[in-house]
Amino acid sequence: MLAGVSVNFEGRDIISIKDFSLEEINHILKTASNIEPLATKGSEMLRGKILATLFFEPSTRTRLSFESAMHKLGGSTIGFAEAEMASVKKGENLADTVRTVESYADVLAIRHPLEGAARLAAEFAKVPVINAGSGAEEHPTQALLDLYTMKKEKGKIDGLKIAFVGDLRYGRTVHSLAYALSLYKVELYLVSPKTLKMRREVLQTIKEKIPVVEKTTLDKIIPLVDVLYVTRIQKERFPDPAEYAKVKGSYRIDAQSLSEAKKDLTILHPLPRVDEIAPDVDNTPYARYFQQVWNGIVVRMALLALILGARK
Ligand code: NCD
Which of 173, 268, 289, 293 to mutate to test the pocket of ligand 1 (most atoms within 8 A of CB)? Predict the structure, then answer.
């Protein structure tokens, strides 16, 4: 526990990053840092505990990262990755699914295409619920691992100039991350096509706390920033495929486009990428998106340990 700060995570849900104070977020990051050696060595601290992953939407990283985190702490996992195979296909509603699965597990991680789904699940579940992505709304554990990566790469978060690039409307990771960053002293540049600008409610909230500049092109932005957070245009969330066609491929970062970047620029991406970061960026010192994946396990280990009471 941080000196003088009283935080308690045992039994808590993780639904929105907005439910967490700066002290609580910093405590999670500190716990992650302390727990990181166990991601290599392993631990038995969650022996006998079960995580259920209920994924109603595609995922590679988030689900496997939660499962890996649980196994590294000695716990086990159950769940489904294809709702097609679960009883929801027979018409079972989310509340019944949750009230069933809570008998099998100590904590649930849920990903669902509908906004508000994780919050609803938490209202029905007696065990803690972690939001692993709720439609275009939020992805709080991704925001925590993004912050952890920034802190690890830069030594601090305060003072950073950060640009988000891509789909700021349908991308849920940027919503949670923007809320979280607004608790720090950062400057935020939001680069997106006009039709994919940052959601209004997010923008209004963060603008009250930190300087925010909105742009439609990357012109002059790259040399300015310490962190470039690139996102995929969220094709599957567009109501109209013609609208997607108009913005597809709007931004493409390649090694050439980084010629004026700061020497210690950090490029992050929640992944998966489509074509917004060219493969020739992967071998530059700026690319940290695969380290971000590793950090995801570490942060999820910390969250599971805190929620299940194995760490204070
Ligand atoms: C993101 C998601 O699912 O929101 N992926 C992830 O969890 N790392 C980003 C995306 O799908 O573009």
Answer: 173
* Closest residue CA from atom 1 of ligand 1: 270
Q: Is the CB of 77 under 6 A from ligand 1?
A: no
Distance 8 CA to ligand 1 centre (A): 28
Mean of all residue pLDDT scores within the chain: 95
Residue 59, token pair as written in the block: 């995922």
Closest CA to 223 of 254, 264, 184, 282: 264
Q: Taking Cα atoms as reference points, which of 186, 220, 182, 232 lies closest to residue 202?
A: 182
d(CA 126, CA 240): 39
pLDDT band, very low/low/confident/very high, at 91 (cuts 50, 70, 90): low
Architecture of the domain whose range is 17-138+294-307? 3-Layer(aba) Sandwich (3.40)
**Residue limits of CATH 3.40.50.1370 in the chain:** 17-138+294-307, 140-290
16 close to ligand 1 (CB < 6 Angstrom):
no
Residue 166 confidence (pLDDT) above 70: yes
Read off the pTM.
0.96
pLDDT at residue 2 in the model: 46
pLDDT tops 90 at residue 16: yes
Residue 278: alpha-carbon gap to chain centroid: 22
> At the fourth CATH level, which superfamily is domain 140-290?
Aspartate/ornithine carbamoyltransferase (3.40.50.1370)
- pLDDT tens sequence across 202-220: 999 999 999 999 999 999 9
Q: How far is the CA of 151 from the centre of ligand 1 (A)?
A: 21
What's the gap in Å between 141 CA and the centre of ligand 1? 11
